[in-house]
């Protein structure tokens, strides 16, 4: 079953965020856009490159009303230790959610049960708490925050303009399409 257009299931987690441990639940998501950025584990190889890339786009995402939550099955204490010991991770200013109970990873269907780790999954959640974008990558393939930013802009655009759709490779400011019988077979 696809998670698209489904509501985020209830959860409660502790995040390491800007030098503090903070509680986060599904209620924190309401009224704003959110990205859940699952990765396998702290102190690994591809993960810090992705998290650092996402940090490079975080200020722009925040201006767009988007909160970012990185999520792994590590504890919030492990997140703090990684933040304190890695130059790349030390620059992160978005919340790092801990999922040691595996509940959030199961809720988003990214848990690798036999390993107790999350797949590389990216989920964009709208202000109503519904999942609008799902992306899954194999563990050895890193993601691109620039492309994620483009997808969030497209999701926000079509939410604000429900009679339009964004074609392939759409960039902010470019033409969109208004679905109609006249377009069938002409694109």
TrEMBL record:
Enzyme class label: oxidoreductase
User: A single GO molecular function, which one?
Assistant: NADH-dependent peroxiredoxin activity
Keywords of this protein's UniProt record, alphabetized? Antioxidant, Cytoplasm, Disulfide bond, Oxidoreductase, Peroxidase, Redox-active center
Q: Which CDD domains match?
A: PRX_Typ2cys
Query: Do you know which SUPFAM superfamilies this protein is assigned to?
Result: Thioredoxin-like
Principal place where this protein is found? cytoplasm
| InterPro entries xrefs | AhpC (IPR017559), AhpC/TSA (IPR000866), Peroxiredoxin (IPR050217), Peroxiredoxin_AhpC-typ (IPR024706), Peroxiredoxin_C (IPR019479), Thioredoxin-like_sf (IPR036249), Thioredoxin_domain (IPR013766)
- List, for all copies, the residue spans of the domain called Thioredoxin: 2-157
Q: What is its EC number?
A: 1.11.1.26
Top-level taxon: Bacteria
Outline what the protein does: Thiol-specific peroxidase that catalyzes the reduction of hydrogen peroxide and organic hydroperoxides to water and alcohols, respectively. Plays a role in cell protection against oxidative stress by detoxifying peroxides.
Assembly and interaction partners: Homodimer; disulfide-linked, upon oxidation. 5 homodimers assemble to form a ring-like decamer.
Q: What name goes with this protein?
A: Alkyl hydroperoxide reductase C
**Where does this protein come from, organism-wise?**
Halomonas tibetensis
Gene this chain is encoded by: ahpC
